[in-house]
Amino acid sequence: MRRRTLLSATLLPLLAILLATLLLVTALTGRTVRGFILADTTARLEELVAVAAPRLVAAAGAGPEAVADLCRDLGVSTTGVRFTVVAADGRVLGDSHDRPARMDNHRDRPEVAAALDGAPGRSLRFSSTRAERLLYVAVPVTDADGGRLALRAAVSMARLDAEMRMVYREIALAGLAVGMLAAVIGYVRSRSLSRAVGRLQAGAEAFAAGDLGGRLAVADTIEIAAVAEAMNRMANQLGERLATVEQQRGELEAVLTSMVEGVVAIDREENVIGLNAAGAQLLGTTSARAIGRSIQEVGRHPDLTRLAQQALVGSSRLERDVQLGPGSDTWLQVRASGLYDAGGSRLGALLMLNNVTRLRRLETMRRDFVANVSHELKTPITSIKGFVETIIDEPPADEADLHRFLEIIRRQADRLDSIITDLLALSRLEQDADGGGIELVPGPLAPVLERVLRDLAARRPEQSSRVKLDCAGDLQAAINAPLLEQAVTNLLENALKYSPPGTPVAIGCRLDGGQVRVEVVDAGPGIAAEHLPRLFERFYRVDKARSRQMGGTGLGLAIVKHIAQAHGGRADVASVPGSGSTFTIILPGTETR
Ligand code: ADP
């Protein structure tokens, strides 16, 4: 459909209707005026012939010349009217404007024929004699001899036509004036209408562009004002709804952002359509980089992609642990399910990612620990069992042998006891640390170290001379004295155990960079660098055979580490193979008094 402007759509038809009305009015008025003039002229001519008829009767009696003279006479006295007298046979007897002899027979002229037949005749036609349109009126006249004559009067229609033209011109002028006025008013009105519609359009476009703050001016036209008000209402409602949607989106985003779990949404083409901060962090990307890319590209793991694809076609919830990337030690627990819109049609799939690396590591540690404990316990138990069976099945004849066997059994039982005691100490430590049951009291460190030395001197006086103590009496820390004592004892026992007899061992404490350092230094064989990172693990030993031979459980340093951690500190080791080791318990410092 061809589109038109409001102006051309309203103004042009209006002008066309106006023009048609004007033409119709002109035609109707013209016809009426013309009929009126024609009737008036006819009546005048009838009057003239009625007045002239008695004179013709007299002139007819006086002969043809008199008739011709009468016609001329009548023609002179009434300007513009032509008089003709026609005999019964059609001959022209006289004419006011022409010579009768030159005129042809008039019997067949309709008005003449009617008059000669005894009735008044009338005709409006083109005169070949005068070469113009004439109105003829003829009446029958009976002369003195009883002969029938026709007396005809004619008048030119030129005047009538001129009057008609004038009428038409006046109507046309008036019409033109009315038309122009209508055109101007129509133009002004439709322009203001089109401007109002233009303003509506501009407002609607602003709304469509998202600018819902503005309001449309209410026009003076009822319909346009109604549209403007309706659009303003619409903008209001739209604004409110948008605000609600924005708020809900903000809330949803806040929930997603604060979630620890990663959330990744993909569409049916496996492209990422959204992910939260945790999701982006777990996959090592950003939402700007991930959105619009395929899950294959973003997830970088075939298992993750496979799970997403299964969730896209299936209806059940899937769950799998996935190790991210080659060489990565990050494990994700991925739960995948279909993503549906409010109407229940599938939009894609939703992946929930949970970092289970720590859980997995703990699980591995637990398994290793159980295996280690079993192994550590198995060795002495096997040995005890073996000797007991020997004593029962083949009792040694020699008393000394029996005594030796029982001595071995006692050593292995002691070993079992040490292991179990250390394990219990560790587990108690862990339990107390988890439950916050380890009480720390600010106090001096020197008395703790002195007690360790006193205890050593009581148990093994021959060793105590190797040990030197160097600790400032005023150095303080928040400590649990019995635990710290146990930790330092473990370190001191190791130093004495693993360094050659007679070599010095120093224990001391000092403040360093705001931290309290409790150190045990020996001049033993030292420890190779590759062992240092794992030295504090449970059951880790540099030399297993030597440790066992020395009655070690492999748990001493693990206990030290846990005690240091229970104090909010840590345990450390520095060692130079060949020249000795330094074990340190580092505690958060307090001010010295
Ligand atoms: P163990 O009961 O075997 O002594 P620890 O946990 O106390 O267990 O120590 C772990 C290992 O660290 C020991 O087996 C030993 O190899 C090494 N170690 C500990 N202290 C020293 C030290 N002062 N000098 C050399 N090696 C040490």
Oligomer: single chain
Overall tally of structural domains: 4
Name the CATH architecture of the largest domain.
2-Layer Sandwich
What bound compounds does this protein have? adenosine-5'-diphosphate
| Tally of alpha and pi helices | 16
Major β-sheet strand ordering? 2-1-5-4-3
For the record, what CATH class of the largest domain applies? Alpha Beta
Main beta-sheet annotation:
5 strands, antiparallel
Give the termini distance in whole angstroms: 99 Å
Give the overall pLDDT as a whole number: 89
- Strand-residue fraction? 15-25%
Write up what this structure looks like.
This protein has 593 residues and is α+β, with helices and mostly antiparallel strands. The protein has four domains: 7-163, Beta-Lactamase (2-Layer Sandwich); 259-355, PAS domain (Beta-Lactamase, 2-Layer Sandwich), CATH 3.30.450; 361-435, Helix Hairpins; 441-592, Histidine kinase-like ATPase, C-terminal domain (Heat Shock Protein 90). Helices cover 54% and strands 20% of the residues. It has helices at residues 6-62, 64-77, 110-116, 158-208, 222-258, 277-282, 287-290, 295-299, 302-313, 357-393, 399-435, 446-459, 461-464, 481-498, 544-549, 556-566; strands at residues 81-86, 92-95, 121-127, 132-142, 148-156, 262-267, 272-275, 318-323, 331-340, 346-355, 441-444, 467-471, 476-479, 505-512, 515-522, 570-576, 580-588. The strands form four sheets. A five-stranded antiparallel beta sheet has the order 2-1-5-4-3, sandwiched between helices. A five-stranded antiparallel beta sheet has the order 7-6-10-9-8, sandwiched between helices. A five-stranded mixed beta sheet has the order 12-14-15-17-16, with helices on one face. A hairpin with a 2-residue loop joins strand 14 and strand 15 (515-522). It is rod-shaped, with a radius of gyration of 66 Å. The chain binds adenosine-5'-diphosphate.
